[in-house]
Amino acid sequence: MNSQTKGYGAIATTGLVASFLFIVLWIVAIANNPDWGFGSDLLTVMFGASDDFVGNLFRYGSILCAILLAAYGFVVMAKSKEAGAYAGILLTLSCIVLIVAAIFGKEVKAVDILFVVFVFFTLVAGGVAAMKAGNRPQAVVAGIGLAILLMVYCVKGFEMCESVTLFFMLAWVVAGAVGYLLAKN
Predict the structure, then answer these.
(1) Helix 158-182 vs helix 53-79: crossing angle, to nearest 10
(2) Burial environment of residue 107 by CB neighbours within 10 A (0 to 12, 13 to 18, 19 or more)
(3) What are phi and psi of 38, to 5 degrees?
(4) DSSP secondary structure letter of residue 86
(5) Structure pTM?
(6) Where does residue 48 rank: exposed (0-12), middle (13-18), buried (19+ CB within 10 A)?
(7) How crowded is residue 56: how many other Cβ atoms within 10 Å of its Cβ?
(8) Which one of 4, 13, 14, 27 has the fewest beta carbons within 10 angstroms of its own beta carbon?
(9) 178: domain range?
(10) Contacts of 121 (CB under 8 A, 6+ apart)
(11) Average pLDDT along the chain, 185 residues, taken 10 residues at a time
(12) How many domains does the chain have?
């Protein structure tokens, strides 16, 4: 890693915690809502699925995680050059779209499409930036994620693509955060 990655332990930890917390919330919400199918329903359907404790936990927990991930993206944008800055901006915008979806809690396919497009370009810019910075694990996650996203979209359709997109966004954040934590200070 280069000198740009020094001193970002707190924000890297924030990215890790937010990613893992979102995955746990997602699993709990899926387990609680048997009507929602992974890959057969949109994420916005999950936000508006129920008003019980678990539904609200997922909705408000998602907002918290998106705020933390947006902060991570903002720091990535502020410390990076060129493609890395674009990746940070796009990650922040993706999180803003996720927050809007969680707040309104309705099925709005345009919001889902916007989220997938932002994350797709986050992975493109993030993969390029990671390769330039020497963060090969994050670049590999971005590359594999993009390849799988394109295949899933062609074979399974948009609903599955959105779920896989969210997974690879979180995996990309985890790979970058681990890279920051392992950088020599």
Answers:
(1) 50
(2) middle
(3) -65, 115
(4) H
(5) 0.85
(6) middle
(7) 12
(8) 27
(9) 3-182
(10) 86, 90
(11) 59 88 86 74 70 79 90 84 83 88 76 86 88 85 90 84 87 87 70
(12) 1
